[in-house]
Amino acid sequence: MEKSIIFTLLENQDHQDLIPTISGSYQFVQDPSITVRESYFDSFDWLLYNENLVLLKQDDTFYLKDMESFEVKAECPWEHKDVARFWWDFPDREIAALLKTCLDVRALLAFLEIEKRSEKLHILNKDEKTVLRVYLDEINPGTDVSIQKTIRTITLVPVRGYWKEFRDFHQFIEGIKVAKPCENLFNMMLKLTQRKPGDYSSKIKVPITRDMSGSMATRKIFLYLLNIMKQNEEGVISDIDTEFLHDLRVSGRRTRSGLSQIKDVLPPEKLDRFKQDFRELGQSSNKLRDLDVYLHTKEKYLAMLPEDLRPGLNPFFIDLEKQREKELKGFIGMLHSDFYRQLVTDWEVFLVSDEDCNIMPKNAEKPVMTLAREFIWKRYTKIIKDGEKIDNDSPDEKLHKMRIQCKKLRYLMEFFASLFPSDEIALLTKQLKRFQDNLGEFNDLSMQQGTLKEYLDTIDSESDQDTLIAAAIGGLIMNLNTRQHHVRAEFSGQFSQFSQKKNRSLFKQLFKDGDRTTAKKEMIP
After folding, report:
1. Can you say whether the dihedral through the CA atoms of 178, 183, 189, 190 is positive or negative?
2. Distance of CA 383 to the CA centre of its chain
3. Over the stretch 78-132, which tens digit does the pLDDT of each residue have?
4. Which of 443, 420, 410 is nearest to 368 (CA)?
């Protein structure tokens, strides 16, 4: 079946001038014009766009559409005054399920708002049957002042069985030279907005090259991380969704990790101050992040308990909500503080300054490729060495330290990913992440049990309500403990998978033998 075709009118053309031209060659019926308001939504990090989807609200209905074909995947009437912010706000299960898969806990944000005036022409044949539908749309800025000009389009929609008429009209429009083909109207509208798809991602994509010095590459990495922090400030302050805090924290944590691992590259005089300040910043939001995680696991916790015990968790989560309000207020105060503003300003000045230091750090002028291999290989070999010493009788603290070591390795691999073949680095990162998931879940389960036990100690159990709460918390601790033992038993298998021979060979090839391997290849005639 022929697909719809879209043209955009040339800037000096107007629909009202086009209609008489069409009437000179075709018979048609014209519907009254209609005007609709449209808002386009995605998450801050473009999760729908990355899946080739867009969420559109047209007057009182939401449509989830394929971005290229604009085929409707799901729709949902919206009669509420409040704007839908999360997937769980949608009463329609189909659209909610599709959005959940893409968005998880991220909020929907309107990135484009327009007003569209549309006229519909039914092109008729000699028998006065509709053989083609032509839409004449005029797209104007709605409340979105970022669109600076009007876009006028012609959309040809074929009618089944009348392909010749469709192709003939297509040639007619091309022949009168009033419009040009438009491959994707949505992408065209995006070009006129202030925000651009992919303008934010929490993933590290630092364009460093192997011929850069260690100093230049490290500064680029830290500036990239600083920019991520600054991009997330407003989202935290406005409490749009919890991932703004998460991304800001991870950026700060990556910075601390980089400061401790990428050694003897930057002038050391001020680094101790920045290490301490970033540590203090991270600590100021630790409890807030923990509360966010607990609140997101509410449904999972409830599912672990018999239905008659579930009401006992309500007071626990109500208490968490109150604590979160207090912690969020405190961290917003931190972001508005002189301490934070001075940290961000001084750190940026330090990274972009070319001032000479008294003693040039020994790794400052070394090629970043050499340093990246050295740092990554050293961290990787330590993980393998320590992991081989862990067995089923090892204390939990060993796994905790292993988790931190793996996180440091992951950060190094992300920092320097652009220096290595993308397929190989992606494979090793995937294997490492799978191992980290085991270690991370084990640590989370331990922390959650600790929090629940502390809460359990605050319950007097003198009333039926307190007894129900204690029973629910106790049952939850028991289930979490059972899961923790299961995850602990999986450690050996996960470590064996990560440290398997082919992974060791690839790590060695990329990060230890890289220079020699390259030299050998260059010598081959």
Report:
1. negative
2. 29
3. 988 788 899 999 998 999 999 999 999 999 999 888 889 999 999 999 999 999 9
4. 420
